[in-house]
Amino acid sequence: MAAAVERVIVSSNPENSMSLQKALSAASPLTLRIVAECPVTKARACDLTLPHCTVNTPVFMPVGTQGTLKGITVDQLESLGCQICLGNTYHLGMRPGPDLIVKANGLHGFMNWKRNLLTDSGGFQMVSLVELSEVTEEGVNFKSPYDGKEILLSPEKSISIQNSLGSDIMMQLDDVVSSTVKGPRVEEAMHRSIRWLDRCIAANKNPDKQNLFAIIQGGLDAELRKACLKEMTQRDVSGFAIGGLSGGEEKNDFWRMVTLSTDHLPQEKPRYLMGVGYAVDLVVCVALGCDMFDCVFPTRTAVSVLRPVLKDKLKYIYIYLYIYIFLSCFYQRFGSALVPWGSLQVKQKQYAKDFLPIDPDCHCPTCKRHSRAYLHALFKSDTAAMHHVTVHNIAYQLSLMRSVRQSIVEGRFPEFIRAFMKRMFPSRDDYPGWAVDALASVNVTLD
Ligand SMILES: [Zn+2]
């Protein structure tokens, strides 16, 4: 079945007026307009129009729904200028369940979020439940962490849940293997992901309203990745995600797989690099040609493992361990404020009497109102400090991407990268080697 999607590319090519007309006449849930392309790197700035609003890319997509633990409201996300956020299919599909969400007019209605939503397939959470899950051709079998019942998450089931959620972008169910796994399992997962993509395309009941993205797999093997790219780009999907990375592999392998993927992905469709959120990674991967990013580290790693473990008394020791790791990740993450010169640990003593905001150049509600000293004091007694720092961190990510976009539009992205790196690292010797190599591969030499 064909997903009824037409795309518009408004670039230097004037012959696109026909595809523009075609697109206007079609009921299209996605159009991509390339606003500017960097003449030096592979970076581009696009207007990605989805059913709920236009998204200016490159874009960072924060997590906006259950399972986030971020304590940020949709109002705040909206006022920070967020145009698209992530919903968590696994958690929402389990609780409160798709039926209730359908009654609330989908996830948009349930959350009262008027902009775009991207939902994952639920597959990634299965990897977190690795002890309890088993992958077969049919799908992923696992025990519900809520009641211990056997559940099969098939490609059809994943799309059915995402159809109920009504997200603007749905992700295919893929066979996820850790990026550090090698050998035949990687090849098997890549081929299975292609077969599952076909089943997801066939299962989509709302191709005129909901976009489906394929996920390129193939681990760190260039030939497997190329084979996956060749197959998947022949499918009628609205966009492509680069999957199976950011899982602890060497950064040198990471960027080479990213750039290989963007080399083979079609220009006219959006490219989403999954699981990437550190500032340096974002800037480098924009230069390598990626448009969309997300990062949901704390939810992915710890939360979903807690409940099933409770079933086994012998594993009580692990419960404490998981809780400890989870809380320290949580605390660490929210105690750490992102700034153009790296990060600032508000909890540190040196900020106890510091009346500057986290970042004097930041325009977020936290920096407009509160000092480092106040936040430092708040951290001792109140979780509200985490909330304030989270608001700042999301504002930082969104504002970083806006600056990146602006520099691409104004034709000065390479200069932007040089200035960004200079500010982020105390000296040239501190630049990560992989970033230097990755940038050199797209003609940007750092001074
Ligand atoms: Zn701020």
Automatic annotation (TrEMBL):
Gene3D superfamilies registered for this protein in UniProt: Queuine tRNA-ribosyltransferase-like
Cofactor(s) listed in the protein's UniProt record: Zn(2+)
Pfam families referenced in this protein's UniProt entry, alphabetically: TGT
Residues annotated to bind substrate: D120, S121, G122, G123, F124, D174, Q217, G244
GO CC, any one term: mitochondrial outer membrane
Entry EC number(s): 2.4.2.64
Molecular function terms, GO-annotated: metal ion binding; tRNA-guanosine(34) queuine transglycosylase activity
Region (RNA binding): 275-281
Function comment: Catalytic subunit of the queuine tRNA-ribosyltransferase (TGT) that catalyzes the base-exchange of a guanine (G) residue with queuine (Q) at position 34 (anticodon wobble position) in tRNAs with GU(N) anticodons (tRNA-Asp, -Asn, -His and -Tyr), resulting in the hypermodified nucleoside queuosine (7-(((4,5-cis-dihydroxy-2-cyclopenten-1-yl)amino)methyl)-7-deazaguanosine). Catalysis occurs through a double-displacement mechanism. The nucleophile active site attacks the C1' of nucleotide 34 to detach the guanine base from the RNA, forming a covalent enzyme-RNA intermediate.
Subunit and partners: Heterodimer of a catalytic subunit QTRT1 and an accessory subunit QTRT2.
PANTHER family: QUEUINE TRNA-RIBOSYLTRANSFERASE CATALYTIC SUBUNIT 1
The protein, known as: Queuine tRNA-ribosyltransferase catalytic subunit 1
The organism of origin for this protein: Oryzias sinensis (Chinese medaka)
